[in-house]
Amino acid sequence: MLKMYGTMLCPDCVEAKEYFEKINYKYEFIDITASIRNLKEFLYLRDNRKEFEEMKRLGYVCIPAILTDDNEIILGDDIFEIK
Fold it and tell me: Measured by CB atoms within 10 angstroms of the end CB, which terminus of the chain is less buried, N or C?
């Protein structure tokens, strides 16, 4: 199942979550502010995948971040291309 890493404190994450609910897309929301375990899981992913490098260089937290069943990372407005 697709995973979305984010927090309800982030307006972009809220928008992405609303989008998935609107299109009735099945996903697991991993709230990185809900527990240290969730935060560590996200940070490990972010710090070990090249897809995050540019956004990290620009100083972004890199959420919302999508991890697909095919182990692909989807960031930014590309999230809204998921149907």
Answer: C
Tell me which long-range contacts 29-32 makes (C-beta under 8 A, separation of at least 24): 29/3, 29/4, 30/3, 30/4, 30/5, 30/6, 31/6, 31/7, 32/5, 32/6, 32/7, 32/63
Structure tokens at 29: 């929301």
| Beta-sheet strand order (sheet of 28-31) | 28-31, 3-6, 65-67, 73-75
**DSSP-assigned letter for residue 51:** G
